[in-house]
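for the recovery benchmark. tokens below, seq after
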């Protein structure tokens, strides 16, 4: 067996594809975000990462339809993105209100008071942070969910190890990798690491049941934006420069997450559980049932044949 090339599928082996994709994507992110532009630099990173993703998806992975990436330009996709954003925004608002009413945080001011001294219109950094979190939510989901999970699943599918079993294994491996990608963040704690891993599972679940990234991108974007851009919490240890609300935090870090942000505490864990429950209930209501999407129930070759037939009938 050739360890680098799969002759049956006429493409590089899954492990090689994953390594190349991760390495080049990290380089692209580093170079694209090296110049501070109030968050607009992440728009540049998003364009380059998506371009590289498409090259790998089409020519290295040899997939036939971009819908397999979980991306479609449709009203349904946009609506699901909105539902994911709403769920995460409401839950983060709840986390803020709990800490504020309990005295764990004190509101010290607002963005228009801070930006007045530097003669900057306060909406500029807000829009920049909004764009940043939209881009981060999109390209991190593209990387960790849309690219890595199908490739890990396909690499693990062999003989008696079915695609469904490989998918569950990919969920665990990918979520651990997602957590460990945050290890260099400031003020990371064991509890914070566990919560990030669980957040990876939360972000993957709607993708498994719908085959679309819409809910995942919406949740990822709104969780980060409301957490840092609106309420002034640290986002996985990273302090936002110009949040709409400036806060000072007190309380037990085990509960609040402390200097890592809500993701480092029990409130963040509760938020992850609530969002997962809400999205699962909504998907079950809209789809009629919860079942693995066909992409995750079949092998690579079976999926390509199924999608080719669907294109011919369209």
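predicted aa per position
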């Amino acid at each position: 067996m050739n360890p680098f090339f799969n002759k049956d599928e006429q493409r590089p082996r899954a492990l090689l594809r994953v390594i190349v994709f991760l390495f080049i994507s990290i380089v692209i992110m580093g170079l694209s975000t090296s110049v501070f532009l109030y968050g607009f630099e992440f728009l540049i990173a998003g364009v380059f990462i998506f371009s590289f993703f498409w090259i790998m998806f089409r020519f290295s992975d040899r997939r036939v339809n971009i819908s397999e990436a979980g991306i479609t330009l449709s009203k349904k996709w946009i609506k699901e993105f909105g539902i994911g954003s709403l769920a995460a925004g409401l839950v983060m608002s709840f986390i803020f209100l709990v800490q504020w009413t309990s005295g764990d945080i004190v509101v010290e001011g607002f963005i228009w008071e801070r930006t007045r001294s530097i003669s900057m219109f306060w909406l500029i950094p807000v829009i920049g942070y909004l764009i940043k979190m939209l881009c981060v939510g999109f390209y991190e989901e593209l990387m960790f969910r849309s690219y890595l999970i199908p490739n890990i699943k396909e690499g693990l599918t062999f003989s008696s190890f079915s695609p469904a079993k490989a998918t569950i294994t990919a969920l665990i491996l990918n979520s651990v990798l997602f957590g460990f990608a945050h290890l260099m963040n400031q003020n990371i704690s064991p509890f914070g690491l566990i919560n990030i891993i669980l957040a990876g599972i939360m972000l993957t679940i709607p993708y498994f049941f719908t085959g679309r990234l819409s809910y995942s991108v919406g949740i990822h974007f709104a969780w980060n934006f409301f957490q840092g851009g609106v309420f002034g919490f640290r986002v996985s240890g990273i302090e936002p420069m110009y949040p709409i609300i400036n806060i000072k935090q007190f309380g037990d870090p085990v509960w609040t997450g402390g200097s890592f942000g809500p993701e480092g505490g029990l409130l963040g864990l509760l938020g992850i559980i609530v969002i997962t429950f809400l999205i699962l209930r909504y998907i079950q209501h809209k789809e009629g049932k919860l079942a693995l999407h066909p992409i995750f129930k079949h092998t690579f070759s079976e999926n390509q044949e199924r999608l080719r037939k669907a294109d011919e009938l369209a």
